[in-house]
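seq:
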Amino acid sequence: MTHFPLRRLGRAAFGLLTLLAVSGPAQAIDITAVTSPGGIKAWLVEDHSNPVIALNIRFTLGSADDPAGKAGAARLLAATVDEGAGELDSSAFQAALKDQSISLGFRAGMDATHATVMTLTDTSADAFRLFRLALTQPRFDREPVQRMRQQLLAAAQRKDRDPSSQARRLWWRAAFPDHPYGRSRDGTVDGLTAVTVDDLKALHAGGLTRDGLTVSAVGDITPARLAAVLDDLFGALPAGRQLPPVTSTPPRTTGQVYVKTENIPQAQVVFGHAGIDTADPDWFGAAILMEIMSGGFGSRLMTEVREKRGLAYGVSAGLAPLDHSALVIGGTATRNDRVADSLAIIRAEWRRMAEHGPSPAEIADAKAAIIGGYALGLTDSPAIARRLTGLQSLGLPISYFEDRPARINAVTADDLRRIAKRLFQGDKLTIAVVGEPVGVTATDSLPALN
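struct:
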């Protein structure tokens, strides 16, 4: 049973992606690169002040790998892989975790499955043994598979009725009509029902591999012990993925407007277009610009949409770098009679930034906020481990923490004006609305959401 809540990729996630990629520490974090005898790599923040070890692991297996017609397969795999392993059935496996206060869980997202282990040093040998069993010998017994399937089905049915989930699904389906990103990452009723145990076994064998494996560790463990643990945990996994490759593609965003009519008092809006990848030299500049555009209270969108006009309680947007695409994506919710005005303001701010760029004061404030904001997210060992895994998956170097302030400050006003023209593509801002928006005309027919 996964110890992660079932989450959606919403506005909070957009902000997290940006924070993950551009924030920096208020104090130094000493990271050690560890390589096992078998060649498995990890980042380690060694801390012996408390007898706790946290691992965060990323596998390149996500909902984009779901078999055709079986949306939700990766989610079901993540929910069941620790529901019994080896000689331990589900009850015995969960009891073994509980008896020693071990936290172990899996969560599948769009591009990846994340696993976490949290253990006391004294029980770490058992924690690692149980984690290895889940990775290498999951049972997939009928009862826990059906139990977790029912939980995911209930969640999928709730999201089918939820207007904000509908708006997100509509936008992604429109932006990626012929790509796995356009499928429901949470699963559909038909897809989850169709997933078999053989499907789970195939995804497990083909996707939980050393290919693309990312590992981070924080806490009471030495580099030497971590090196041994890496081989013990992951050495027996297949070396390469045995699943069809997922192609990289830009979103198909050409300024379309989609409206799904629902009789609800507050319309849900998602908007976005192609973004900039973390490997792009303009990444840091793009992050500064998005901080100015949508970095919270005082940002351009919040000032113009909420504070000056009271059109919506909140509006946000951010960079979303994915394994196979890169986006600028955002959202808001407002009364149906205010949707048209809200969209007009958002489009106007897109144009203003592209045409004129940011002011010197905005640049200074954004850089200060980005450089100074990192410590807010690093509250405990699991949070640090999660951040390290995120940085590794984004392809950022181990020196990132030290280099980041200088790299942010090196971005000039001229750079930002140039990047703004590239990033803010007002004519390509594609919009999905669920509700009964007054004065908003759909330009395209609705894509099939399933």
